[in-house]
Amino acid sequence: MQNLLHNLNPEQLAAVTLPSQSALILAGAGSGKTRVLTTRIAWLIQTGQVSPGGILAVTFTNKAAKEMLTRLSALLPINTRGMWIGTFHGLCNRLLRAHHRDAGLPQTFQILDSGDQLSFIKRLLKANNIDDEKFPPRTLMYFINSAKDQGLRAAQVEAHDDFNRKMVALYDLYDAQCQREGVVDFAELLLRTYELLSRNQPLREHYQARFRHILVDEFQDTNDLQYQWLKLMAGAGKQEPAAVFAVGDDDQSIYAFRGANVGNMSAFEREFQVRNLIKLEQNYRSHGHILDSANVLIANNSKRLGKNLRTDAGHGEPVRIMEASSDIQEANWIIDEAKNLIREGSLRSEIAILYRSNAQSRVIEHALFTAGIPYRVYGGQRFFERAEIKHAIAYLQLMDNPHNDSAFLRVVNFPARGIGARSMEQLQDAARQHGISLYAAVPHVGGKAGSSLANFVRLIESARFETQNLPLPEMVQVVLDLSTLLTHYQTEKEGADRIENLEQLINAATLFVSEEGFSREAPALTGPASAAALLPAADSVTVIDADAALPAVMSPLSAFLSHASLEAGDNQAQAGQDALQLMTVHSAKGLEFDAVFITGLEEGLFPHENSMQEASGVEEERRLMYVAITRARQRLYLSFSQTRMLHGQTRYNMRSRFLDELPDESLKWLSPKIQPSWFGNKKSAWDEAPAAEANRLAQGMSKAQDSHGWRIGQNVLHAKFGEGVIVNIEGSGSSARAHINFGQFGMKLLDLSIAKLDKI
DNA sequence: GGGTGTCCGGGATTG
DNA sequence: CCGGACACCC
């Protein structure tokens, strides 16, 4: 016990040892949040306040869940397999498998990832003769997902115009089709679990009695449905609700665009009668100048719960800022600085280059490639998303649930077996006519089409038959052979990588089986009969629990298939090598590095132009900047550029407002700092940057100046709109008009002979 | 069915 | 400018 709690600072200690009531922990960046969470669990168990089975710990990412498990097993000598620690989706999957009948799902229901969901919707629109110009699949998908994220079924969504009424109708059709095929999307996992627990009182009370301590990581990222889910699970408002230990940071809320609602933090305080609010403000990550920059920047936001990070580390190096003349020059500067750091002994993997949007990585990658510096780009395609893997998975899905039409369509003619569009049309007609799945409709198709289709069905049947008693990895091997996927890629020119990936899939199955405990002599639960044994009798109030171990509630194949959907796996690009780390600011959340470059700090890019209409948008961008800054331990570099190629056009942006919100005493400008206009110094960097001029000329803009005396790229000051940049000039002489980017005020078209403009 | 050409649109992302 | 979606051709 002494051991468990020593080394905690007073705030952390207070949080870990809070009484069994709901509490909100405001955990600043780098304040030891995961440590507090895991130590809290260990302390609760060690002091006998709860058994491991009474703990429910929820995270958003698999990575966070794994991290928690690892650190917990280092703290406590217990088997963590029996504990309910996982993502919202993973935990819901487990509950739905165990109680599938009550939830109205087949035991082998399958999970659509977002790609599957999109093709599912396209198919739905086509089958119902909907014009996908008027109702774009992506829009419908967003509509459905946001409704589900708010806990709403189609019948509950309010629609006030024809378009929305149609969307609601399509949402309803979508759900019905999912139900027929035995598939669920990600949001459905949560909504279905929520509905299951809402209407099934014995089940609800069983889990409420079981989970006396619920811990939630990254609470600021919860959406409305997740919050309702937690309320239900905890029995909030009841006599003896569970103690919910919510850890979050409102300043790091950067996912409003996908439904996260920071308001859940104050709702939580209110609705869970939170008496204990603890702020973790001691930062163990960043040097002083970096932390001061973050603090001063975020103070510009209005809606905050209020928090100020402090550090015992000294000031450290100042934050370095560079204005480049072009995006190419910016990239080269970054590389020079990174080389210096490496020369001084930094590991490449301890240097991160961050950007607001993926498109910005190109120029940087090009420069790194030319310089021969190894780098790794985050966020690429992941293992289970690769086409060949999805094909193999589709065969396995059909064996486990033949009514999954998505899987059927993916592989019915891949590798090619002479089942073309015409045959499929007949099959789809038959399926629609009888209201059954494609697989089930095969016997209704006659002729040549019918016999090729019947051959395909026989292929799936025999794969299932031949593998029914095989361990999972061997099952995968057999499927790869029988489906002729392997031979198909052997004859393909560039199939070598794909074959390697397919072999990796067998490894993945082997690994999965050993990690999840399927390799031991688990009771064979492949048939529906044994699963039924787990279910409560209809009139019984005894609930058989969804034990935490997977083998108790699903077959190895079903489990592996949900694993493939719920954990898409790493993107394996250049993994393992000591390489510079390139990623968006969003994907940097939760990570930390010795040195961090934040690039493209320009109005329109960061803050992004789509966010600048509303104050709340800019505040989220500012939080994003806050996240970016607080990734750095020792060194922080900020850069922006006067010109930038975007969408095939040269853009001229003003420097980001965020740069002007940072504290001067923590900064070191490596390029001359041009004061904002209201400070007096009006000299433009353009006048002192011959390189920029040369660059511009090289880009074919030879006509730098015209008779009207203005040129593209000129910084100007306008009485009403303030500081701006001339982006384009049309016409000439006295009739010339200029497109001027005024940042917050947007793009204006002004007549140069009329508008009162000063050069700055 | 796969390969090539044309058109369009382009913010971030986990499960 | 670049990638995805789709039409068209062999």
From TrEMBL:
Alphabetical list of CDD domains matching this protein: DEXQc_UvrD, SF1_C_UvrD
Keywords: ATP-binding, DNA-binding, Helicase, Hydrolase, Isomerase, Nucleotide-binding
Keyword Nucleotide-binding: yes
Domain UvrD-like helicase ATP-binding: 6-287
Superkingdom per UniProt: Bacteria
Binding site for ATP: 27-34
Pfam assignment, any one: UvrD-helicase
Keyword Oxidoreductase among UniProt keywords: no
InterPro entries in the record: DExx_box_DNA_helicase_dom_sf (IPR013986), DNA_helicase_UvrD-like_C (IPR014017), DNA_helicase_UvrD/REP (IPR000212), P-loop_NTPase (IPR027417), UvrD-like_ATP-bd (IPR014016)
Domain (UvrD-like helicase C-terminal): residue spans on this chain: 288-590
Recorded catalytic activity of this chain's protein: Couples ATP hydrolysis with the unwinding of duplex DNA by translocating in the 3'-5' direction; ATP + H2O = ADP + phosphate + H(+)
Family: Belongs to the helicase family. UvrD subfamily.
Protein name as annotated: DNA 3'-5' helicase
Organism: Undibacterium griseum
